[in-house]
User: Fold Dihydrolipoyl dehydrogenase family protein from Saccharothrix lopnurensis.
Amino acid sequence: MIVIGGGPVGENAAARTAAGGLRTALVEFERVGGECSYWACMPSKALLRPGHALAAARRLPGVPVGDRLDAAAVLARRNGFTSDWDDAGQVEWAEGAGLTVLRGRGRLVGERRVDVGGRVLTAARAVVVCTGSVPRVPPLPGLSDVPHWGSREATSAQEVPTSLVVLGGGVVGVEMAQAWARLGSRVTLVASGERPLPKFEDFAGDLVADGLREDGVRVLTGVRATGVSTADAGISLALSDGSSVEGAHLLVATGRQPATFDLGVEEFGFGAGDPLPVDDTGRVSGVDWLYAAGDVTGRALLTHQGKYQARAVGTAIVTGAVDPEPWTAPVSTADHTAVPQVVFTDPEVASVGRTAAQAREAGLDVRVVDVDIAVAGSSLHADGYRGKARMVVDERTRTLVGVTFAGPDVAEMIHAATVAVVGEVTVDRLWHAVPAYPTISEVWLRLLESYGL
Assistant:
């Protein structure tokens, strides 16, 4: 077995096949642990959490709090979560799991053949591509001539920028705008849509926009960037309404694309930068020995979903090595229609499954139930708690096909909704899943009552 890409997805696929008795090589050209460990999930949440804790304390009378965060301490703690960008611990884990770690960029050069820095390896069983994704750079005039941040620079900066312009209202944009604003930067967020987070329910983006404004972020919506240039302050971003914004740094957060560049996929009929099409076992279309998992498939660009896919891939390969009968992932819907996601802003957004619009587009007979999160648990949690919940029900089966929560600290509520969606639990049965009192989860009762149960 050869796994190209040593991030969490590659680690899971490789560990699965090694545990199944296959000699497995893990190929990584940067750091074992990948984007999530050093530039995405872990450092970004380490930057966000102290600000959330301070805001939560301010919402409760009688809790002594300071006026601001200790930025140096926050950055130092962030550095600790990345092990100061040293992957020695991750390599030690991989080798302890029985993997052979190979440093270098892996490139497909033939059937089951991978070139790693001039050394060509041949896999007896299969090759798995887990190379993740990279930032999508927009064709913005002047951008190539202006120093700017991508997500990596935004999560690894060692000093708080005096001012920051964030281009893009997606997850990376809103999270980094709030993190740096709470650390003392003067932040402007530019989003081309009516609100941030356009892929979520509308109320989620509205609540997050309000939260950003309360933190001093200037939120500009419905405008596009038309060009960028250097300025006395650092950069100047021209906008479609004729105005411009300036800042010391520019963060370009306009999405990501599969990292299939310089991988040799063209030899097998796939385009560089395009996702690798896979079935539910992770097998790449038309290539019986090639598998892929994670962002590189374009299915669900989330670490937890990639790790789920990797486990399915690893099991499929091990099972196939022992038993030639086809193997299918037990819950193929898990990375299609039951994907959980959290936006770690304040307020948080936690969702799973389809939005109301997506459910209708899929032809479902949909009923949408909206309630404010206003229960004893939320009142105790914070003075002035503001939040909303939505339940999307397929009336034909009376099961949930989508749930969204938006409000402070709702992230831990989403797994219950995920179980309900994946398990196709009916609303009638959910009535007997009694939430503990007094918790924010009591909002489930309000949802079911509003539905009519």
About this structure: The chain has three domains: 2-39+82-135+257-333, 143-254, 347-451. Residues 347-451 form a domain with the Enolase-like; domain 1 fold (CATH 3.30.390.30). The first helix runs from residue 8 to 19. The mean pLDDT is 95.
